[in-house]
Amino acid sequence: MAKVKIGQVGVTSHGVTILNAIRTAGNLELVSIFDSKTEEAEKVARQLGVKLAEDYEDLLSDSEVQAVALVTPNHLHAQQAEKAFKLGKHVFVEKPMTQTVAEARRMISRAKKAKLVLMVGHNTRRRSVFRQAKGIIHEGKLGKVVGVEMNVSRPAGLFPDVPPWKTNPKLTPVLPMTQLGIHFVDTIHYLLETTTKSVACLATNSAMTGGALDASAAVLQLATGVPVTLSSYYVTPDIYEVRISGTKGFLRCGNFSLTLEVLEAGSLRRVAEKDFSSEGHESFVEEMNEFGECVLTGKKPETGGEEGLAALAVIEGMTRSLKTRAVANINTILRG
């Protein structure tokens, strides 16, 4: 089997998940890594038997490297991708693809001009619970979708090792939405086959030091008119809930569960209940395998630049809404 030789930047924390996904994908071969945490990077390089680059530029200059996986702080994505495209490397970049819509547009343009693959790490839509949910909605079992309620939260802001860039409101505005909520934004775009038209947001600093906005809530209106509420906190126990309401029933998606209830003769009846607790990290393996396939065949990624841009624009809209205390129009943001 043909394999794409890939280098990864950022191999600690979430980087470990992507490393394992690359090694499992089947059509990728990890050949080089770099991380600013030198000791941990040296350990990974020894364990995996791959090259340890001196810095990012050293990794890019390696003629063996055909593609890069960027698992790095958000504010570095745009510059790192730009350098990769200039040297003819395909790019997988973690979400959010950049900090701003303007940067994302330039990234998409550079990839197209260089005829290189750009893929954004929105793995959540690939989870089995949402693949199943998509089928249920497509089959019309909910009737007409009339509203969505979502909450994705973690206690990450309470951990002592929170990276400084996450606690800096200038680098990571609306922290929980940027790091967590954006996953559900992309997922609802996928499930309902639409994008967001407008958004209003409220956020506050409740528990973290440094002034980070660690608790947030937003109301989105999709292009189809469907209203969506999205809450995300960075300082609470884990919450992972999506509830889609339709004229015929309700669909509830949890971290590892799916429940479908439909209205029959005036009463709700549970018609489907599924457990996905054995899934593991398959969604990450799927996305990295797809990245390899796209590089090898020229196939367009499911979550390419345009999909990443659509989700990022909603986050930028939330930031604008906070500043103006008004509803932000996403098309206006996309037009710049």
Question: Could you explain how this protein is built, in words?
Answer:
By secondary structure, this protein is α/β, with parallel strands linked by helices. The chain has 2 domains: 4-124 and 282-302, Rossmann fold (3-Layer(aba) Sandwich); 125-277 and 312-335, Dihydrodipicolinate Reductase, domain 2, CATH 3.30.360.10. It has helices at 14-25, 38-48, 56-60, 77-86, 101-114, 128-138, 164-167, 175-192, 282-297, 305-324, 330-335, and strands at 4-9, 28-34, 51-52, 67-70, 90-94, 118-121, 145-153, 196-204, 215-222, 227-233, 239-246, 249-253, 257-264, 267-275, 328-329. The protein has a 9-stranded mixed beta sheet with strand order 14-13-12-11-7-10-9-8-15. A 6-stranded parallel beta sheet has the order 3-2-1-4-5-6, sandwiched between helices. Strand 5, helix 5 and strand 6 (118-121) form a beta-alpha-beta unit. The model has no long low-confidence stretch (mean pLDDT 97).
